[in-house]
Amino acid sequence: HFFVRKQDKDRIRYRVLSDLKPWRIGITKDYAYTPELSAAVHDPAYHFQEIPLNQLQLRKLVAGRIDLVPMSLVSAFGQIREEHLEESVDYLPQPLNASPYYHVWCKARADDQTQALMAAYDAQLLQMKQDGRLQALFAKYGIPYLEP
């Protein structure tokens, strides 16, 4: 999602990436973004500012040095909570990219128990979704829960 200053949330319209050409967009050096955003970085019609540390992006946003920053909800809301930026920062509802979460299982360490472990993990995650514990966990850490 693109994060913005709260006072700018209603001013910035985003349906497609080209809607963001007038705005200053912060990106982090050596981060992998969507192919569309990565291609736009080389388009002079956009106003990108690249910095070396992702943690500085929200600080630059609050200071007014950039207008938008693409970040994952989990990492951004972790920083927002840690730095008490709840009243200053929000995100645009249209995601830059959306995909279901997949837990990664290491093939090199797989054994005869791995398949059963994976099935148990999936069953527990489904149960947490159904009984509300997953949403409660997100709420506990101030992260919006968006159903995939």
Let me know the number of strands: 5
Rg value: 18 Å
Largest sheet report: 3 strands, antiparallel
Low-confidence stretches: none
Helix count equals 5
Proportion of residues in β-strands: 5-15%
Which structural class should the secondary elements be placed in? alpha+beta
Distance between the termini: 14 Å
Strand order of the main beta sheet, please?
Answer: 4-1-5
Shape: globular
Q: SSE order in H/E notation? A: EEHEHEHEHH
**What is the average per-residue confidence, as pLDDT, rounded to a whole number?**
90
Q: Please give the share of residues in helix.
A: 25-40%
Topology overview:
Elements: E1 2-5, E2 24-28, H1 35-40, E3 47-51, H2 56-62, E4 69-70, H3 73-82, E5 89-91, H4 114-131, H5 133-140
Q: Can you tell me about this structure?
A:
With 148 residues, the protein is of the alpha+beta class. It is built from 5 helices and 5 strands; from the N terminus they run ββαβαβαβαα. Strands 4-1-5 form a 3-stranded antiparallel sheet. The longest helix has 18 residues. The chain is globular, with a radius of gyration of 18 Å. The mean pLDDT is 90.
List keywords for this structure.
148 residues; alpha+beta; three-stranded antiparallel beta sheet; two-stranded parallel sheet; 5 strands; 13% strand
What's a quick, concise take on this entry?
33% of the residues lie in helices and 13% in strands. The chain is of the alpha+beta class and 148 residues long.
